[in-house]
Amino acid sequence: MTYGAAEQTTGQGASSRQHGKGHKIAPFMLGAAMLAGTALSSFCAVAPAQAQQVAPVSAAPSAQIPAALSSAQVVRATLPNGLKVVIIPNRLAPVVTTQVNYMVGSAEAPEGFPGTAHALEHMMFRGSTGLDKDQLATIGARLGGGYNAFTTEDVTRYFYTAQARDLPVLLKIEALRMSGLTLSKADWDKERGAIEQEVSRDLSSPGYRYVEQLQSILFAGTPYEHDALGTRPSFDKTDSALLKGFYDKWYAPNNAVLVISGDINPVTALEQVRDAFGAVPRKPLPERRNITPQPTPARTLALPTDYAVGFAAVAYPMPGKAAQDFAIADILSDVLESQRGALFELVPQGKALMAGFEYMPKKRAGFGLALAAFPKGGDSAKTLADLKAVLENIRKNGVPAELVEAAKKREIAQLQFSANSVSDLASIWSDALTFRDLDSPGDAVAAYEAVTPEAVNKLAATLLDPAHAVTAVLTPESSGKPVAGKGFGGAESFASTSDKPVVLPDWAEKALSTLEKPVPTPLPTVSTLPNGLKLIVWPSHVSHTVQLTGTIRRNASLQQPKGKEGVSSLTEELFAFGTTKHDRLAFQKALDDIPAWEDAGGDFSVATQTQDFEKGVALLAENELHPAFPEQMFQVLRAQLARAQAGTLLSPGYLFSRAVSAALVPEGDPVLREATPASFMNVTHDDVIKYYQKVWRPDLTTIVVTGDITPEKARAVVEKEFGGWKAEGPKPDVELAPVPLNKPSRANVPDKSSVQDEVVLAQTLGLQVTNPDRFMLTLGNTILGSGGFSSRLYKDLRVKSGYVYSVGSEFSWNRTRASYNISYGADPDKVGKARVAAMQDLKDMQDHLVTADELALAKASLLRGLPLRRSSLGAIAGEYLGLENLGLPLDTVDKAANAYYGAKAEDIQAAFKKWLRADGMAQIVKGPTPTW
Questions:
Q1: What is the pLDDT of residues 17-61, one digit of tens each?
Q2: Residue 25: which of 344, 398, 422 has the closest Cα?
Q3: Which of 334, 512, 676, 705 is the most exposed place for a label (fewest CB within 10 A)?
Q4: SS3 79
Q5: Could you tell me the residue range of the domain that residue 576 belongs to?
């Protein structure tokens, strides 16, 4: 449960809607990495639309608007109790997503208790009348899907994704939570510890602390002054009575919007909604607070960070998502972020390591953030001055009209991709109805179409006013080198009470008790071109779009020449600077004209509307096979990356990841090779060309095409553009040699900016990815740590003790190596306690059989979750590419399903005994010195 972006979900899947609002040059941070949790997508947003009674509307949609985003094919209704319902069919997979949006967030929190809405969101998973917390967690695991929630200033959203046949179960859960939340003192006392751990985690992020200060300045004197996270002092004062008062005021059907998308019959689904929610009474709603931020005087902030590079930033007040001029502001932000724009031009000019713009709108107000990166020890004043000069020129002289038109075209075309993910489709509708006060997402088209260059320039002249800007310089600082220690030598004891079997309510038991034998998944069409390139095609006609995703098997640790470490990064970055046919600006214009979302390099992709697929693939192939690698940009990038690497080598994040690697592999292993400023500067332009010619090979390449296309058409297009690509020389070995088992050890990586410790407990394994024991380890780990809210680690380290906010465990595989890790975040005084508990849970997996209930739950979770792994076209492509990279057959998922179905408790215990070592963990901690 989170306050701005969902974490800790248990489902599978990948978004297929977000395409190219960033750029490749800076793997440092812009946007989500720095600003995580502070905003939803700048493309959509939402607030309650005027409810419409009754069923399907058959009006033909505009050619610009996908049917899934307009009134066509959509069922909507308002129940007598005021619950607004929207149901959108989508046949991508036998999957359904439900999203219950309560029209309340931290903006309505009581004075002095800014995290009340966030705390209540947590408590919604602690049980309600007729469904206690253990039953809720068990049902969630049996469903096999993803479920979670997030809180913003304006809306709190609860979402489930599961098999379509389980829709009645999802609706029953939400109806019970809406009408009878338990909110016991004992439950809040336990959950308080977890939510305070979450606060500690976010306060450990310099990016979060910066945005928190920014929000308090720009929205001073309004309910937006505090974000939705809350504070530890306020949570210390919060009690269950305060939470109940907030729940009783705001959690009502007449203050909620229910959105359902997936492979369901809309009319039947609406009847199921009426059955589940019809008896929930409506409530009188309090008056909402007024939010009208006033312009603030210019301010300057200076913050230390643990980032590898520094940032100059300038923030401006901007409209909210429900504002009449939101579309204009959104187009302005797209133009400012464009790779053809003046901000990005700072990069090829050598004035910034990266540069861009992020628009962060809430419902009733927002802000924009211009960023430019400088190397550690670099001239921050010069970077800031260059950034301000660009923004001032835009304020005075406006932006190119052609960039405005390109941004409009992209925003409208991007709507087509929404149906390519069941959960994304639900989110876009939820956002439109709750943040933007639209009747449908398709209504945004008219607003974007109406935007003119004159309107954008007029808004830019008003918004980019230095008199109201908040300027900041985020300066990286070193925190010290890792401190090594000896291993622990054995697991300590931890007294954990055994869980009682969970008896589900009759309605849930009836729906979820049967474990059906796995049914094979239809296989894609697979072919190999004469040059060795493998092509996988999965047609799906849920939208008029096609996506191509590809990867080249490569290994920089083995393929970079000695003393030239960094040539791989330089090669990848240079793909962003044009082709032998088009320079950088001309190539980006060609993409904008289609429009297409393209990325080239070792991993490459293109996404277009159906009618433009051939054009998009032609441009991708041009970039992938004929990159310009301009000498001038090589010189600029080499100097930039060398300077940035000096900061990276001292940054806590890098030192932490390197400490993990060093604990698991022997000294001198190829993965321990590291780029330095000197090795970057040793790379020549000729080295880049030779590296590209050696590594980029069709016989090591796999391409997956998904979407509105036939296998025959996909093959014809790919063969036309990539068929002439030829491999030169013998195929290189890109596989790392197996490594011996690691020894137990510990290391501490100081991080001055963190108040919470980040902990990884890790070990290497002796089995290969092809070993069938992998399936038993995966099944057992679902019980131990990857099963979300029902896992042993989650229950013991969070629910029972409150030691951590988040905890999980996972296996990592490549063709020759495997490892296992447990990770968590905890306050320093709880690190040791959490480790002891985790190690005891691991040892219990080896010493005792898992219970019949645990085994049945894990099987249900994995088997019922298989369809969810294919609930987006991005997830389908990712699954096939992942299997290819591991050298596994494409029916491996079916083999795994059959192994899970027939597994016994003895099989799991034997696999954990054979391959895992409770006394063999390396422990790596980043943050303050922990208490062991």
A1: 233 333 333 333 333 334 333 332 222 222 222 223 333 333 333
A2: 344
A3: 676
A4: coil
A5: 525-722
